[in-house]
Amino acid sequence: MMELWELFSTFFIIGFVSFGGGYAMIPVIESEVSQHGWMTTQEFTDIIAISGMSPGPVTANSAILVGYSTAGLAGAISSALGILLPAIIFVTVIATFFSKLNHYPVVQSMFYGLRPIVTSLIIFAAISLALSNHMIAVNFSWHTISLLLVFGLSLFALMKLRWHPAYVIILSGLVGVVLYS
Amino acid sequence: MSMKGQWKTLFQLFWTFFKIAPVTFGGGFAMIPLIENEVVEKRKWMKSEEVTDVFALSQSVPGAVAINSATFIGHRIAGMKGAMAAMIGVSLPTFLIVLLLGILYFFIQDNPKIESAFISIRASIVAIIAYAAIKIGKTAVVDKSTFCILIAGIPVLFFLHPVMVILAGALAGIVTISIKRKLGYDVKMDKKDRKIEENDFEPFMGAGI
């Protein structure tokens, strides 16, 4: 019961600040997950991969999976409710009182600062996941080089070939089976 | 509205978004043409411009664009109950799909083949996140000040809780703009020509997902 409340309240707070949503929330969820001892960073990276392969928002998806791995189906539901509830509160308040929200100068100024900080969060997420998955190393082993190659090719497929991330993940998995087994 | 009519509307809201949800990976802007088709053309609930406004507003609220816009539309059509019906409709299919994939993963994660697949997948995830950073960075950096906020944010994140950093970012925006205004600078708030690209799959857009 305690665990379910912890999951709900953690994701409820995250739901309130998930500006830029998606990948910007990874470090936020990661820091909560490791503080509570819910899973390791590597497991968490896999959770993000599965969230990216599924339809729906990455933040909600990863919340659901963290909840499931911690406390089963009840955990998944608690986390989902936690992350969804702030949205319904915000939407109701804004739809009722501030339907011209975007025109307030203070809101525009806020986003002037929020957009770059959300970018920093995403860059930080990339750096910390690269570190925990041994992609940045002092001695360049074959393993590190191969991971950097996978990284480079994936980035190329996304940026230049404009592949959908789900395809990149699936194809990369097949490459992994060939390279690392 | 009669009791029966209200339930019908609520169910239609639920069902409309239930159908749209599974097709939109990452949610967000990929949904726009589908929502337009259902909400404007088929059901005639709203006008096309109203839907565009809803999407703009959804980006200013924390959370996923897909979920926020569904909730806004539900609220517009049937109040609080409508908001709930639309939100449950848009969330339920993706909840079930990600849960199924997750259960499958937890079941087979110790298989050596799966383990080696995920070694490579983890490197690709870093690439996907880097790509997300590049995309949102392009809309975030409009001048030198926004560039400075971006660069300053990265080392700070190694020491401060990310939630604090997000709040600090919002505050930095307000302070920077008011200082600039006081000094009489011309402030560029946004990229004027920023357009919503429908074909842009957008799993992680700016203020989005």
From TrEMBL, chain A:
Assigned GO CC terms: plasma membrane
Location in the cell: Cell membrane
Domain of life according to the entry: Bacteria
Database matches in Pfam families: Chromate_transp
InterPro entries, per database record: CHR_Transporter, Chromate_transpt
TM segment ranges: 7-29, 73-98, 110-130, 136-156, 163-180
Protein keywords: Cell membrane, Membrane, Transmembrane, Transmembrane helix
Molecular function (Gene Ontology), one example: chromate transmembrane transporter activity
This protein's record includes keyword Transmembrane: yes
Membrane topology label: Multi-pass membrane protein
Similarity comment text for this entry: Belongs to the chromate ion transporter (CHR) (TC 2.A.51) family.
Protein name: Chromate transporter
Naturally occurring in which organism (per UniProt): Peribacillus castrilensis
Phylogenetic lineage: Bacteria, Bacillati, Bacillota, Bacilli, Bacillales
